[in-house]
Amino acid sequence: MLKIAVAGATGAMGKVIVEKAEAAGHDVVKICRSEGVDLLAGEGILEQLDGVDAVIDASQVGDPASDDPITPILDGAKNLIDAAEKAGVHRLVMLSINGVEKPQLQEFPFYKARFEQEQLVQKAELESVVVRSVQWFEFVLNPAGSEVSDDEVKAQNWAIQPAPMGAVADFLVEAAEGKHGEGLITVAGGERLTLPELTERYLAATNDSRKVTTVDAVLPALADGSLYAPVDAIILEPTLEQWLRQQ
């Protein structure tokens, strides 16, 4: 059993990571505002990392859609890394996004911020693993890519290779355990499709009769295959069809 801290523990993915880590028998420490921790201000982090073996960073500091999403993300990352080094944490696992290294996707400042955060993590004075994840199956109907009304879903024409959120969370916990070594790893699902296709299949599986309309992606790179996983990506299960049956 390890003592694992989860930064962003109350976020959508953070909650799943906490659940998976506890199910694996680990002692979980939550790094979030409700526990008196402020990553951006650097407050309460060191105290929360006392005795912690590994940190999984799934935090979202600041607003991705703001004029400057980069500064808060990097400031929060620096504060977390500094505290982890001082506390003697052995390993840091960062949840990142597939494709953030590509200039055409860095036109979206949030992706550029994550790429720069990766570099901070890789330079840290502790073992580190950066896990780049594709979009999740659960991204369907997300406001970042879709506009939802009572009778229609307008889905942007993103070209994606999605994976199940739970499997990504499991992988992050395994990385914290040291099962995937160090460095940079990409995880993905096994099927390439568009967001409108994912939306149609999800609505059909959940007996939702709303019409799906395809609209242009806000950034051309989101539709040109830049979000597809590289050939060396680790493919996670369940498959989309298996996941849809569970819905």
From TrEMBL:
BP-aspect Gene Ontology terms: photosynthesis
Keywords from the UniProt entry: Photosynthesis, Photosystem II
Annotated Gene3D superfamilies: NAD(P)-binding Rossmann-like Domain
Record carries keyword Ubl conjugation: no
Keyword Methyltransferase: no
Organism: Rothia amarae
Residues in NAD(P)-binding domain copies: 8-175
Superkingdom in the source lineage: Bacteria
Matches recorded under InterPro entries: HCF244-like, NAD(P)-bd_dom, NAD(P)-bd_dom_sf
Protein name: NAD(P)H-binding protein
Pfam families: NAD_binding_10 (PF13460)
GO CC term, one of those recorded: photosystem II
Signal peptide: none
